Amino acid sequence: MSGMWTFIKPSTRNLRVWQVGLLVLIFVFWHLATTPGLIPPIVFENDQQAAFFFGEPLKVFGRIWAWFFTNADIYQHLWVTLLETVLAFGIGTVLGLACGLWLALSPLAAAIADPYIKAANSMPRVILAPIFAVWFGLGIASKVALGVTLVFFIVFFNVYQGVKEVSPVVLANARMLGASQRQLLRHVYLPSATSWVFSSLHTSVGLAFVGAVVGEYLGSSRGVGYLILQAEGAFDINTVMAGILVLTVFALMLDAAVGKIEARLMKWQPSTAQSERL
Amino acid sequence: MTAPALQLADVSCTFADKHNPSQRYTAVRDVNLTVGAGEFVSVVGPTGCGKSTLLNVAAGLLAPSTGQVTVFGQPLTGINARAGYMFQAESLMPWRTAAQNVMAGLEFRGVLDAGAQADTWLKRVGLGGFGDRYPHQLSGGMRKRVSLAQTLVLDPDIILMDEPFSALDIQTRQLMENEVLALWAEKKKAVLFITHDLDEAIAMSDRVVCLSAGPASHPIGEFAIDLVRPRDVAEVRATPRFVELHQAIWGVLREEVLKGYQQQLAA
After folding, report:
1. Which chain A residues are Cβ-neighbours of B59 within 8 angstroms?
2. Residues of B whose CB is below 8 A from A270
3. Chain B residues lying within 8 Å of A278, measured CB to CB
């Protein structure tokens, strides 16, 4: 008996098993609590209500199965959401990088722009979505614009910080080695700033994704956010849940991809986990 | 007679306090310092006496408040293009490998065979197989060697060194000192070497200049070091002439070091 316990006791060895077990447990609980007629209603007045409010996991999975295999009609929506995310991330990063470099290297411009940047950053930018919808229509452009406003500030502040914190010794050294102003920008400021951009990569990709989905949700004709919006209009809670699950898994995959890219590009940075591989 | 490699004439540097502009601090005052072509000059002085300030002035990174700097007879404006600078702190670009760091200066100048020259210099400082390592993958001593190669690959006429080996352990340090001496003996560049270590200064230099304690520090003594070359920095310390010179210079420096220490305690 005690041998059995040491085998299943949570430890670093069987971490994965426990993680999966917890997930299964949640779904089992969800299934038990929502399937009509399985257990007598405790909170609700009749046994249909729990399913109405929370959806039923089996139907949710059926929905996902249909999306991916039987009907195979989710791919175009996923593609649109992915495209919006990537575009928002790319454009937001380039703009943030350019503005961050410019303002960090010209203190006067930074001093003038300072209150506006603070104001723009503290404004709840999701509220711009209706304006973007009017400006750019219901296509992907308005979602990209929303994502850009979210990504821009993350990148901007990180680049600004990165340029400000370039080691003065490294800078003086580059100047003594004969770097011109342009070469300083290219070989010192930019690499230093990009390292800060990469440190915020997970956050900014996440926000680009948020911008895309929220934009779709507020008005669109394609995308996973659109599917959720449609289902919600029909009180189809199972499809809403299915959409949320798909988005979550998608976001996790995106995050893993970012981690891979980061590890490849930032190999010059010492990491605490990696010992010196000499 | 040819013009000296580097000449500081009546140089003073005054800094205004960032938070209180009426508060001024004079780091160095009326400094006259000459380094001849091919001469190895060390500047020693108590901590905080403005040694690094002088070096930054010589490098053109800092414009003196008053006075003039001439480089081979030409007044210096902006960065001193004929000088190479080895910093006390970490100065390598962390995003470049050792080889890329060494070739940086050549790259800035648009030299075509930068890579090959960098490889040659990495081998010369004993890091032949380490070209593809990033600075964080190298030890402190190795990083200093990369810095040395980075400075010397440009073949500067003047080499400025700001306590380059102060962060190293004593064995690595003596090795590096001997290496620098050997490289210097090959090409005979003008060297201005800043250190707080009197032993190091005597062992390496042709001439040792003592600075007074700050603020407003200025040279208070100059000693020609007539020890025969080539020298081994570890062995030369045991020679009677070295001990004699050490005593003479320490006699001048001692009081200033104590003064500097008292000031730091009071502050």
Report:
1. 172, 176
2. 136-137
3. 133, 137
What are the extents of the domains in chain B?
Answer: 6-79+209-266
Respond yes or no on whether the N-terminal peptide bond of residue B230 is cis (omega within 30° of 0): yes
**What pTM did the predictor assign?**
0.78
Token code pair at residue A165 = 């914190």
Residues 6 or more apart whose CB falls under 8 angstroms from that of B222 comprise B207, B208, B209, B210
Q: Where are the domains of chain A?
A: 2-54, 75-265
Pick the CATH number of B6-79+209-266 from 3.10.450, 1.10.1660, 1.10.10, 3.40.50: 3.40.50
Rounded Cα distance between A209 and A251, Å, is 8
More confident of the two residues A4 and B80:
B80
For residue A243, the tally of other CB atoms under 10 A from its CB is 28
Residue A155 clears pLDDT 80, i.e. is over it: yes
Per CATH, the architecture of A75-265 is what? Orthogonal Bundle (1.10)
* Contact (CB, 8 A) for B202 and B246: yes
Contact B192, B159 (CB under 8 A): yes
Residue whose tokens read 């010192």:
A188
Query: Using one digit for the tens of pLDDT, what is the confidence trace for A184-227?
Result: 999 999 888 888 887 788 888 889 999 999 999 888 888 999 99
pLDDT score for A276: 41
Average pLDDT in chain B: 88
B72: its two tokens? 């081979």
Q: How far apart are CA A69 and CA A65, in angstroms?
A: 6
* Closest residue to B89, CB basis, from A169, A180, A188: A169
Tell me the sheet residues that pair with A272. Answer: none
CB–CB of A205/A254 below 8 Å? Answer: yes
Spatial contact of B192 and B29, defined as CB atoms under 8 Å apart: no
Look at A172 and B90 and tell me if their CB atoms are within 8 Å.
no
For residue A188, what is the DSSP state? Answer: I
Which residues does chain B have with pLDDT short of 50? none
Q: What's residue A2's pLDDT?
A: 65
Residues B69-114 have pLDDT tens digits of: 999 989 998 899 999 999 988 899 999 999 999 999 999 999 888 8
Integer Cα distance of B110 and A32 in angstroms: 72
ipTM of the complex: 0.88
User: Which of A166, A175, A196, A268 best tests the B interface by mutation, with the highest count of B CBs <10 A?
Assistant: A268
Quickly count: other Cβ atoms within 10 Å of residue A168's Cβ: 11
- Whether residue A233 lies within 8 A of chain B, CB to CB, comes out as no
Residue B136 at interface with chain A, using a CB cutoff of 8 Å: yes
- Given a cut of 50, whether residue A275 has pLDDT beyond it is no
pLDDT band at A271 (very low <50, low <70, confident <90, very high): low
